[in-house]
Amino acid sequence: MMAIYTLWGYYARWTARWPMLAAFIPFIPLIAIWAFIVWLELFPRVFLPGPLDVIGKAWELTYKGILGDYLIDSLSRLAVGAAAGIAIAIPLGIFIGLNKRAHEFSWPILLFFQAIGDIAWLPILLVWFGFGLTTMTFVIVYTVLFPIVLNTVLGIRSAKPDLHRAAQSLGAPRGRILLEVTLPGALPNIITGLRNGLGYGWRALIAAEIIVGTSGIGFLMFDARRAGSVDEIVVGMIVLGILWYIVDSWLLAPIERATGERWGLVTK
Amino acid sequence: MKSLALENLSKTYFDPYRGTQFTAVKDVSLNVEEGDFVAVVGPSGCGKSTILNMIAGFVPITSGRILVGGREVKGPGPDRGVVFQSFALFPWKTVSENVTFGPKMRGVGKAERAKIAEEYLALAGLSHAADRYPNELSGGMQQRVGVVRALANNPDVLLMDEPFASVDAQTRMTLQEELTRIWEERRPTIVFITHDVSEAVFLANKVVVLSKGNVLEQVDIPLSRPRSWDRLVEDDDFKALSNQVLQLVRSA
């Protein structure tokens, strides 16, 4: 019993010092189970490679420069698509959120097109734009757009009436109320929209790369399938997970901590 | 600070569920002198919050007029400061940014705003909390900010809508004493809405009892100032006045 407490004490201290460690430790049992199943040799190695095979492959791909190049390709596609999507989505969401008419008019359209998920567009996009960057960018912008628009609208519309009234009776004109009251109040929702939008966008990108791609992580995985290289596929999968973790914890979570959590709008 | 007058004020709502008209406020006339402190009490549904919302300009008037310093009220404006039951502080602004929000909207410069913040935070005893965010403060402290935020904007009339209803009983007594102190120091014109009879009698110069959208009675409160709970809780005049108002409210 004492030993467990001591171990727990170490764990708490070390993870407080290095939060990265806290993110990694939960995976240890997962990797152990994976290694154990591989060790049992229920399946042939080419079907189910072990952790060491995958690490070896990852090293090989990095060493050859393929992994790095493909990673940069995928991330820059996501960055371009997401930036365009965000630039359209947030102003659009603000407009629809503020304007009752626009809301009534656009809501059915938004819901309709939201239902036609990212990759459902691929067939027609391939006909229109062919196998290229335009098609992939379109898919990402499209995917990123809806969660951000819908959440921004929600955030703007769920503004507290008393805060609006307080600002009015303190003499704030409309434009200032939008900037100083409505938008900060909508920020937690907008961040939720960004989180969902980027998450969906990332997945859509991989799907697009699988079908359209000539490079990128999605292409790497699909290409590996053709070569029957399962360890390469697994490398791709792990890279996807790690990358998303990085985007979420280094980009989105800090914004959230500095805003909504600090202001007591969302619980920690 | 200026006087406030309500002339034959009425408010009728349309009830969309029943398809009928509902009269919340019926032909209310009331004069509040410059620098006076008037409390409005009444059972829930008597129209007291509707009256305040009309004075503040938050809801449109069905008929009648509201005059602040002789000028008719049209919509919300900085001449009428409002203190909300929900505090309504801006969560993303620090205490001093909340307090100087009104002056900032008027275009008051940074240095001047810093002075205003210092003055009013001292008035509320909150100088130490200037850089904190509202969610880091207790309810009582938050409402102190709410009161001085309204005052810092130099309104002609201060409207208070059950401002102390959501703080605990001990804090409420402290806040009531502080409000009477601030009123004695600065003599703002105050309209104070509450359902708490002893609060109304403790604070105001005059208590207006509402019933079903009408003024039932106006009771003058000639208790001496400064007022404190330590003294008034055993005071016979205070007890008699509270009792009188309570009987009126219960008959309303």
Number of domains of chain B: 2
CATH topology of the largest domain in chain B, which one? Rossmann fold
CATH class of the largest domain in chain B: Alpha Beta
Total of helices of chain B: 9
Task: Write out key terms for the chains shown.
heterodimer; A: mainly alpha; MetI-like fold; B: 252 residues; alpha/beta; Rossmann fold; six-stranded mixed beta sheet; four-stranded antiparallel beta sheet
Protein architecture, described:
The complex is a heterodimer of chains A (268) and B (252). With 268 residues, chain A is mostly helical. Chain A has helices at residues 2-17, 19-24, 27-40, 51-64, 66-98, 100-115, 122-129, 133-157, 161-169, 174-212, 217-227, 230-261. Chain A has a domain at 80-260: Orthogonal Bundle (MetI-like fold). Chain A has twelve helices and no strands. In chain A, helix 5 runs antiparallel to helix 10 (174-212) and helix 10 packs parallel to helix 11 (217-227). The radius of gyration of chain A is 23 Å and the shape is flat. The two termini of chain A are 31 Å apart. Chain B is of the alpha/beta class and 252 residues long. Chain B has two domains: 4-79 and 155-251, P-loop containing nucleotide triphosphate hydrolases (Rossmann fold); 89-154, no CATH class. Helix content of chain B is 37%, strand content 26%. The radius of gyration of chain B is 18 Å and the shape is globular. The mean pLDDT of chain B is 93. Classes of the chains: A mainly alpha (268), B alpha/beta (252). The A-B interface holds A 160, 162-163, 165-173, 176, 180-181, 184-185, 187, 259, 262-265 and B 56-58, 75-78, 80-82, 84, 86, 88-93, 101-102, 105-106, 133-136, 149-150, 153.
